[in-house]
Write a structure and sequence with these properties.
The protein is of the alpha+beta class and 238 residues long. The chain has one domain: Roll (Thiol Ester Dehydrase, Chain A), CATH 3.10.129. The chain is built from 5 helices and 6 strands, in the order αβαββββαααβ. A hairpin with a 2-residue loop joins β3 and β4. α2 packs antiparallel against α3. The longest helix is centred in the C-terminal third of the chain and has 15 residues. InterPro entries: FAS1-like_DH_region, HotDog_dom_sf, Mitochondrial_HTD2. This is Transposase. GO terms for molecular function: (3R)-hydroxyacyl-[acyl-carrier-protein] dehydratase activity. Pfam families: FAS1_DH_region (PF13452).
């Protein structure tokens, strides 16, 4: 499909509604080993990713466990879809137990050619509202790439940080995070599929899970800081 054909998707919007159920919040808290926020308290940073998930039936999924191509996002047949990164502005907290809505709009689509073949980048803006007020504005970058051997290294040296926190994600953590985010992507829990079909050396840690753990580490190291924004980019699979 040409760039001009893909451009027809730019500007498309969809709206979703959900209740920030304390039952689901309890499950997220258990997944991360955290205390459960009470009704009316602020939802911890990035836990909103567990909500507003469309309940697609199994017969509506592709071989990889993702929802079949098309619909709101542009079709990109025979390409693997990955969460590439994003930028988030925290305006005010979402409150546990309340109703909320998410308005998603496709802002940008660009096709590039790299060493692994054709890459399609899609940027989606998500506005999260509660009680009619904007709480979070997020830009999510999605990349569709042609099947190729997994990237083992980012090619960029690690930058020394001001602090560090080590986390070793277990298969249980990966499964539970898939469950609370209703994510059927098989690379996170299906060992034969991820190693034999997609060629990874083991289960792949979710990009949003890595982002959540990174931001949690920052908040722990800076308990007095007010969180205003967060940007992240996936460099290679973990």
């Amino acid at each position: 499909m040409s760039d001009s054909a893909f451009s027809a998707w730019i500007g498309r919007s969809e709206e979703a509604h959900d209740q920030l159920s304390r039952n689901l919040v309890k499950r997220i808290a258990a997944t991360f080993g955290e205390a459960t926020p009470a009704h009316g308290e602020a939802l911890p940073p990035l836990w909103h990713w567990a909500f507003f998930q469309e309940p697609v039936a199994e017969n509506g999924l592709g071989e990889d466990g993702h929802p079949a191509r098309g619909g709101f996002l542009p079709p990109a047949d025979n390409r693997n879809r990955m969460w590439a990164g994003g930028r988030i502005e925290f305006i005010q907290p979402l409150r546990v137990g309340g109703e909320a809505s998410r308005i998603s709009t496709i802002k940008h689509i660009e096709e590039k050619h790299g060493r692994t073949g054709a890459l399609l980048f899609v940027t989606v803006q998500h506005d999260y509202l509660q009680d009619g007020q904007l709480a979070i504005r997020e830009e999510q970058d999605i990349v569709y790439r042609e099947p190729s051997p997994p990237k083992a290294s980012s090619g960029e040296p690690l930058v020394a940080g001001d602090w560090r926190e080590a986390v070793t994600p277990s298969s249980t953590l990966l499964f539970r995070y898939s469950a609370v985010t209703f994510n059927g992507h098989r690379i996170h829990y299906d060992w034969p599929y991820v190693t034999e079909t997609e060629g990874y050396s083991g289960l792949v840690v979710h990009g949003p899970l890595i982002a959540t753990l990174n931001l949690r580490a920052f908040c722990r190291a800076n308990p007095q800081a007010r969180l205003r924004s967060f940007a992240y980019r996936g460099m290679r699979p973990l």
